[in-house]
Design goal:
475 residues, Rossmann fold, 5-stranded mixed β-sheet
Length: 475
């Protein structure tokens, strides 16, 4: 490893060190929890056109206190070992904080996927998977990858097919990777999962009347103004659901090409349609102000109630943190606020909702997909029709007893059985709400813990420590 510490990894370790003294765990156990258990660096050749390229790639398993380990695969030119270590470390705490029974892992391939043809991306993905198989770094009971920045369902399908080719006798082969297309043993609701989890997390935080009073906001998400940085999968779904289901106003958007702002709100669906047609958010008719590419970070300084950084790490630093005007910073991306910047935000009274809680929707629904793959049955298949008949019987009983007839649309609503998407959303909502209340209980019960991130780390570390102690690793 290089002597110089990556700022993102340094921030993660600093957050851990800040929380450790509040856990009551022995120093040796804390050190075990902090360190990455296994780091696999790979260099492999792939033919790109007429040339042969040496591809640098990683898979890091941070903690094997629970197996399999779990974490996405990132395709980016910026991938390096410490970045992957930081992401794997966060995955361990993310799984623990939302009670998903996985250890943390992460993968990275140092390429720019947008500069490659689909055929070249397939070659690299399949070769990377082969390397993981050779070293026993993938499998439904070992390590289960998922999509991350630069990857999606197509890459997961290639991983699944490659694994199945080498492990054809594994009846649970579909569980070797999550985020697969629905028709290839994926699950309904996985694509929207992280963005929807962001919505559930923000909504739950904003329901805390005492905390909202402290920052001058009325409880509830309805009517709150939101700025979103990044219109990738997470940012776009978070914005759409906050607007459509929460009643929030999207007042600002930032993307790689620039930023737009309108204090009265803009329709996120129209913005997404405009960008798809023109290739840019700049020039959107509903915007009152716009900033070119070099000034796109101005979005962090827009007037709003909630700022959602949903792009990459290290977006809010000591340079721009003093200029942040939002009352809540909701970390939809991994590590968008540096540790030093967060200290500035907290001093200003801003609530920071930590990334490894807020963006845990992806791993939560990945867990549901993994369970589906191991059980070999679609959620809702066994009980949907039974529930519908039961509910219909209850509605008929009410109609017969009262002598009144319920309208067709109301009857359909009351008697509907849960489809897979309904059950996935319900499970995700329960997970995000329950996890927040566990975090908030730590924050309110420990006077020395003042912020949500430290409380979330304490909650996660204590759960991991309990697992280690129960297993007898530290007798």
């Amino acid at each position: 490893m290089a002597d110089q510490v990556d700022p993102f990894y340094a921030s993660v370790i600093k957050y851990f060190d800040n929380a450790a003294p509040h856990t009551g765990l022995h120093a040796g156990l804390l050190e075990q929890i902090k360190q990455c258990n296994a780091i696999y660096k790979i260099n492999f050749p792939v033919r790109i056109g007429k040339d042969y390229k040496i591809i640098e790639a990683y898979r890091v398993q941070h903690s094997q206190h629970r197996t399999p380990t779990k974490g996405g695969i990132r395709f980016s030119n910026h991938v390096n070992q410490q970045e992957v270590m930081a992401l794997a470390t966060l995955m361990s705490f993310k799984c623990a904080v939302v009670d998903v029974p996985f250890g943390g892992a992460k993968g990275g391939v140092k390429i720019n996927p947008w500069e490659l043809t689909e055929m070249d991306r397939e070659k690299i993905t399949r070769r990377y998977t082969h390397e993981l198989i050779k070293r026993n770094f993938i499998g439904p009971a070992i390590d289960v990858p998922a999509p991350d920045y630069g990857t999606g369902p197509q890459e997961m399908a290639w991983i699944y097919d490659t694994y199945r080719t080498f492990k054809g006798d594994d009846i649970n082969a579909a569980g070797c990777v999550t985020g697969k297309p629905v028709n290839l043993n994926g699950i309904q609701g996985r694509t929207e999962a992280t963005g929807r989890g962001v919505f559930y997390g923000i909504r739950t935080v904003l329901e805390q009347a005492k905390d909202m009073k402290a920052i001058g906001l009325e409880p509830g998400i309805e009517g709150k103004t939101i700025v979103v940085q990044g219109l990738g999968n997470v940012g776009s779904y978070a914005a759409k659901i906050c607007q459509d289901e929460g009643g929030a106003l999207i007042v600002g958007i930032a993307e790689v090409e620039g930023a737009i702002y309108n204090p009265k709100g803009m329709d996120i669906h129209k913005i997404l349609k405009f960008r798809k047609e023109t290739g840019s958010i700049l020039g959107f008719p509903g915007a009152k102000k716009e900033y070119k590419q070099r000034s796109r970070k101005k979005a962090m300084e827009f007037e709003c109630d909630i700022l959602i950084p949903a792009a990459l790490e290290n977006q809010i630093t000591v340079e721009n943190a003093p200029k942040v005007k939002a009352k809540v910073v909701a970390e939809a991306a991994n590590g968008p606020v540096t540790a030093d910047a967060e200290a500035i935000l907290l001093k200003k009274g801003i609530i920071v909702i930590p990334d490894f809680y807020l963006n845990a929707g992806g791993v939560t629904v990945s867990y549901f997909e993994w369970l589906k793959n191991l059980s070999h049955v679609r959620f809702g298949r066994m009980d949907k029709r039974f529930n519908e008949r039961t509910y219909s019987g209850l509605v008929k009983l009410v109609e017969d007893t009262t002598g009144k007839t319920i309208g067709r649309s109301e009857k359909d609503f009351l008697t509907k059985g849960g489809d897979e998407i309904d059950l996935v959303r319900s499970g995700l909502e329960e997970t995000m709400i329950n996890a927040f209340h566990q975090i908030n209980k730590v924050k309110t019960s420990k006077r020395s813990v003042k912020d949500l991130r430290t409380a979330a780390f304490v909650s996660a570390i204590q759960k991991m420590g309990s697992d280690y102690m129960t297993m007898g690793i530290f007798p």
